[in-house]
């Protein structure tokens, strides 16, 4: 299905227009307002119009889109953007992302796009190496941490139910043996959402107490697991979104495996600590788990969207995801890797190109440096904030997260959430930097 009017001069002119705009946008990252003040109403006035009856001039459409949308964009790639755990884009990853769009490969199967498949294989091996995970683990490049958690937990669901003779892909969950899901109180919201997608629901999650940094307490996990030997999945975390704290993965894996439970590690950003010799100790024991979720669009700084699910039991991963259709040209057993066997998507973007470009450019030392620089900047951030009267740093800054609240007066230590929110709103409004 080729697009009508896909002529070389039109494409060239449009891409030149976009290159020009990109230079301007990226040029503003250092000095421009980070946040936006525009209201939804103002944006709608510029963008909302009746669906056109007739074709429009593409250059005018792109020009209008830039003019109308730009006031509503936040400079998330700027060094002054500190919201959530959002990464920027390495120049090489952005370039590879443009290529990915221009090449427009549907990267589900090897046969129609061998290059996308092979690059993905290479990227999978590199990721396991840099994250310190077992070389035999399977993987999938998905849209983000949310879908990585979903994919890994689908593999877990298959595996633990198969051990009691239940094939969840064929038989579903109605009438299935009981499946326990155990997770820390401070798990990320995407774990619960993945459980919803998987038909496991959230009411039945057995919550394990955490310490003041959000780390699951191993002794509490042992208590919750008890002596039962039912199919069970334990969701651990590497990198609590507010504090950056990592569960004691070594202890959790030992306790959970003693009970034959599957351990999944949500390490959307935290797993990347393994790339740095200085911070690797934080994720010690991660390699003992059964599955992992992480993101490349966070700490690796590739453009959205790119998450990774990994699994120490490739046969369970594949069983949970694989799909067949007569019209597909699928690789024979032992043949080249078809991404569709490992991914929840059918048609999909060739995400591996950006990751390949980023990892090859940075190399092992470049990724380690990236992690170490971010962590040392976080410590510097916290140390400087501690010297400011009325600012209280609440977490142990072990990784890249700094959690603060604002007090009304340095002496009385009085604080309330409304005051903290007001300070943040004021900072955002200043445009100097942006924090969550
Ligand atoms: C610990 C953790 N898990 C999962 C996610 C979700 O990742 P994504 O936004 O890529 O879906 C996040 C995002 O902040 C996270 O911090």
Provide the descriptors you would attach to this structure in a database record.
436 residues; alpha/beta; Aspartate Aminotransferase, domain 2; Aspartate Aminotransferase, domain 1; 3 domains; 7-stranded mixed sheet; two-stranded parallel ribbon; 41% helix; binds pyridoxal-5'-phosphate
Question: Could you characterize the architecture of this molecule?
Answer:
The protein is of the alpha/beta class and 436 residues long. It folds into three domains: 61 residues; 261 residues, Type I PLP-dependent aspartate aminotransferase-like (Major domain) (Aspartate Aminotransferase, domain 2); 72 residues, Alpha-Beta Complex (Aspartate Aminotransferase, domain 1). The protein has 13 helices and eleven strands. Helix 10 links the parallel strand 5 and strand 6. Helix 1 packs parallel to helix 3, helix 5 packs parallel to helix 12 and helix 6 packs across helix 8. The radius of gyration is 24 Å and the shape is globular. Bound molecules: pyridoxal-5'-phosphate. Pyridoxal-5'-phosphate (PLP) binds next to helix 6.
